[in-house]
Amino acid sequence: MSKISFHLLGPLKCQAHGTPVRIRGAKQQTVLAILLLAGGKPVALPRLIDAVWDGPAPSTATKQIRNAVSDLRHALAHTGVSILASGDGYRLDRAGSALDLDEFTRRAELAAFKSDPADKAEALRSALSLWRGRPLAGLTNPALRSQLAGIEELRLAALEQRVELELELGMHASLIGELTAAVAEHPFRERFVAQLMTALCRSGSRAQALKVFDDTRRRLRDELGVDPEPALRDLHLRILAGTRPDAVGDSELPWNNLPGDAAPLTGRDSEQELVRRALRGHADGPGATPAVVAVDGMAGVGKTAFALHLGRQLAHAYPDGQLYVDLRAHGLAGPRLDASAALALLLRAAGLPAGSMPADLEGRRATWHHRLAGRRVLIILDDAAAAAHVAPLLPHAPGCLTVVTSRRRLSSLHSTFQLSLSEFSIAAGRDLFGSVVGDGRPQAESAAVDEILRHCGQLPLAIRSAAVRLRHRSAWSVSYLASRLADGRSRLAELSTDSTGLAEAFDMSFNRLDPEHQRLFRLLSSIAAHDIDADRAAALAGLPVHHTARLLEGLVDSHMLLATGPGRYRMNELVHAYSLQLV
């Protein structure tokens, strides 16, 4: 465990080797808090000024911020943590120091991997034990509040999930006090209300449970002008009828239709952390927009596996449901799913009876938004054709997260974070290959393994296919498999399995290109895969350089080419092998 630690889950604290590091004054504390929440990214000076001053800043604001940074550097000098100038602002280099928010997230995520309810509850209890009060208690500037609301929501979601598990375990009596306090603090959070009613009723206090509902209904009507959600009304009716609520009710059970993981995710730890940091920095308070993460990459790079694994990692923060739909923009399982058909699948997964399904797109959109209102749901929209393909499916509820995957960069999608998945590193490729083969052959021929990774273009799907082929051929050596993959014109056929058609996958990407991009892509097969520039491509195509450059950038957006510098490109080894089949 790091000997330097920062604590945000309560009043701001810093410790070095067990000794408190004093951060004097609200100004320095606010600057440090903003830098910590930025997760190592630069924070512009104007944002720091807005965070420190609630209202018009003084003419000396820039100088005061620089003085505050200087004071912080002095306070942190012996810790190894540094504040670096970056553009017109600063960024914090934590130098491996611990952050309680990261540890909370790690512990909460462990619950998703536990199968036993008691173990899940214990993992969440351990995560919640890190909280020492409201995050950054005492720092009340509005610029911080929106970020802090999102962090507080993580705690409430974990608490709801833990209480739900403990209700299943029969611990209703011991939860009444905690839930009474939670409802008093968050009177409009109907999940807490339902849990308190359930705990009271199971403990023999039926009349008190009914009173909790009446108080909540009156408060909602008087202060917000609305009635309780149907799930809470259904629970009320069941208690009125004398039915002991053994569960909170089917309508309150989390929605979940995520496909099972085909295999553990390998080699994407840094990408997952980038997404988690972006989500932690996303404003999740009143007036906030729902979070959207757009993941793009070429065929075979592992977008679906990444999105599904991410969904399971983040499930604790979205306890009302985790939903998945394959939009099939490049799929082999059938024609592309339009927005209306996708909404029908999502609504059915969210429990809407078939007889209540609206016939038209607008009706389905309205029903979708109504069902998501007030809920925290994670939605994975897999294999989108373009931003317009997913626009009708995006939720309006600020507590929701949508993860969109596509083979094209969705630059026009208003997203919280955009991530382009790249080819595997050599180390990640070796790990994947060795874990799938499952015996000692890869360790005995490490150079041949690296040759196979190169022939596979370091694409996870191809690496897995090659490893599966070797696993099923116990008489083959790694070198022999590498020799079979050396011929670019037969390589895709060698890597095909019953479940993996790499040539077909690349066909779908190629067929989505317009004729002009297709022609240029074919011509590029005659150029060395790692040495493509705009001038040479223009001469080859007989086109002006500026026009060829636009076409090349279009191929980059479709992940048929990779940009290596201004006007310079390369083709993935496996994509190049595919291009050879087109000429």
UniProtKB/TrEMBL annotation:
InterPro entries: AfsR-DnrI-RedD_regulator, BTAD, OmpR/PhoB-type_DNA-bd, P-loop_NTPase, Sig_transdc_resp-reg_C-effctor, TPR-like_helical_dom_sf, WH-like_DNA-bd_sf. The keyword DNA-binding applies. Residues 1-94 bind DNA. SMART domains: BTAD, Trans_reg_C. One of its GO terms (biological process) is regulation of DNA-templated transcription. Pfam families: BTAD (PF03704). Keywords: DNA-binding, Transcription, Transcription regulation. It comes from the Bacteria. The keyword Transcription regulation applies. Residues 1-94 form the OmpR/PhoB-type domain. GO terms for molecular function: DNA binding. Belongs to the AfsR/DnrI/RedD regulatory family. This is DNA-binding SARP family transcriptional activator. It comes from Actinoplanes xinjiangensis.
